Amino acid sequence: MQKNALKFLTLMLCIGVSTAYAQTTQPTKREFRFGKITPAEFEVKASGQDSSASAIKLFDVGDCYFEIGPSSGSFIYVFERHIRYKILNKNGYDLANYQVKLYKNSNSAKEDLNFMDAATYNMVDGKMVTSKLNKDAKFTEEFDKNYVIKKFALPNVKEGSIIEFKYKIKSDFIFTLRGWKFQSNIPTLWSEYNVKIPEYLTYKNNLSGYYQVDHPLHQNVNASYVSGVNSTAVYDKYCAANVPALKDEPYVTTMDDYIPKIEFELRATQFPGEMYQDFNGSWSKIINGMAQDEKFGGFINKNSYAKSVLPGILKGEKDTLAAVKLIFNYVKNNLNWNKEYLVYAKETNPKSIFEKKTGSSADINLSLLSLLKEAKIEAYPVLISTRENGEHPGYPVESAFNNVIGVTQIGNSLYFLDATDKDLPAGMLDYDNLNHQGFYMDLKSLNGKWLSTEPTVTTEKIFVYNMTLDKENKLTGKINQYSKGYSALNLRNKYRKTNNETEFVKNFKKDKTGLEVSNYKIDNLDNLDELLTESMDVVIEDNVEEAGNLVYFTPLLFERTKENLFKLEQRKFPVDFAYPFKESYRITINFPEDYEVDKLPKGGIYKLPEDNGTFTINYVAEGKTLMVRSIINVNKSLYTPEEYFDLKELFKTVVEKQAEQIVFKKKV
């Protein structure tokens, strides 16, 4: 792309013109002048749902426009930001420590912080006192080989201070422009982003989120990037007023999915005298580019390493599923994941990855696809945007993906393959990849489509307590716990992170008052396709209360749901559990001869509409044995905002009903 821009510039220079910074005709807009603080801004207070806010963003204004880089002769973009806060209490002091992250690559391309100004303003004896940014309060940190962080710390920040930052970044990386978020974790009175894009560049923009953003301007304006040459730019203004603070909620992918924001990715260029160049305007264009790339399609096609090791891996195995699992396990056992998600491999050959024995998700999963290809097993790459990376917008945007896995079809079943976690069986994806869909690609036909990544494995945790209550109100007996699906994966990961079984049992007991454990045993830890089983002998004290001749007991003991995580009156975005799940409790209590049941809680069945979830609890007393059964069944992974109230009420019922006590009466 930059070569085309350079050709265009050279053409203009040949007819006797010189480079100049972009000059654009700007429509009238609100004025935000640095240092121009009004007395009314010192009186601003938080109110309503944000009354406990630590600060208020008075305004946040950004401008993005283009210039010709004096050294490269190509387009660069300029990003300016001006942000002002009112500090309300000490929890807002951290806003005075500002960071700007700048990208660079192995070539000379980079981002520069071209300008920074910042100040603190305080009212002292009726007069405003300004404290400028000190030279010794500026720091530079080399974050990694690609990122530098510029840090700034403002002085004299107090409750009631106003602080502001204004800076300018110049960037060579015009493929993706800096986006804009209109909401943050503090209330915002005004947020505005102005974007001016030269007529020679076409960008895809994705405006998303769960709060209304206005788009009052979309028009052509005059622009000049080279002296004597007139052109136009497309000017867009986006803004939002009185935006409440975004509060963290449980069961989301990433809060970024719900923040109102806009993002830009280059789609095409058309310079004077040049052909229209499409970068990734279609899925087939993206797939073709990735198929040709030496660190993606070229990497998968490298077969020298696969040829050398496959005979020893397969040992003549003819069954396709068995062969897939043998290759899958070989990769898991020979490569360690470095916890980095990538789409492209860092090397051009799987052999290099296996020699290093470690790599990114792309290094590992593309190596797996290379082995499967050589084994004549049809398997394909699937692009993923992880939960933390956020939801993909759905249209052709390569940069919105950050991970790659594999998929193969055996019979009528799809098996997703992710070899980064040694405890992941074939056909199951890691929690981070459960973002509801992935984009499958056939690198031969250059076809692709979205595939549902909704889990097909059953996730269930089963708790079985067989206990005897004695006259001293001590419980003794056995606990068995069974885990399937993601419950099993989570338990395996937790178990392996501890140094030994003693430490694991200690952690298990940590939040369970009065529990003593002996003879702990775990079965099928390494048999990933089998039910993960735990058994232990236990003694439980301090969980039964006595008052006169009455004994009170909460039978679900340690496993009950103690808090309803859904607290908002309404929720504007979905509840995302990632996968459906079931929790089953079966508790049997044998109690002494001179005890009798005085009061049993009332059982019942509680259902969400259309059977999208249920909660069941039942109590049965027979002779000197009490049995409690409780089941929580969440039948789908994603619930809409319209379903939120019913879901909240269901879990409110779970908390209340599981906390109810059984009352025994002692015979006198």
In terms of topology, how is this protein built?
Layout: H1 2-14, E1 19-24, E2 55-68, E3 75-87, E4 97-103, E5 111-124, E6 127-132, E7 138-142, E8 147-153, E9 162-171, E10 176-181, E11 188-198, E12 201-208, E13 214-226, E14 229-243, E15 261-269, E16 277-278, H2 283-292, H3 297-301, H4 304-314, H5 320-334, E17 336-337, H6 350-356, E18 358-359, H7 361-374, E19 379-384, E20 403-410, E21 413-417, E22 437-442, E23 447-452, E24 460-469, E25 475-484, H8 485-497, H9 501-509, E26 515-523, E27 532-540, E28 544-547, E29 550-553, E30 575-576, E31 581-590, E32 595-599, E33 604-607, E34 613-622, E35 625-634, E36 638-639, H10 644-658, E37 662-666
Parallel strand pairs: 2-11, 17-18, 24-31
Antiparallel strand pairs: 1-13, 2-3, 3-9, 4-8, 5-6, 5-9, 7-8, 10-15, 11-14, 12-15, 13-14, 15-16, 19-20, 19-22, 20-21, 22-23, 24-25, 25-27, 26-27, 28-29, 29-37, 30-36, 31-35, 32-37, 33-34, 34-35
The residue fraction in helices comes out at 10-25%
Shape: globular
| Widest sheet: strand ordering | 1-13-14-11-2-3-9-5-6
The largest sheet is: 9 strands, mixed
So what's the oligomer here? Answer: single chain
DSSP summary: helix tally: 10
The separation of the N and C termini measures 92 Å
Low-confidence parts, pLDDT < 50 over ≥5 residues? 1-29
Beta-strand content estimate = 35-45%
Q: How many beta strands in the DSSP annotation?
A: 37
- Structural class label: alpha+beta
Mean pLDDT across residues: 91
Radius of gyration: 31 Å
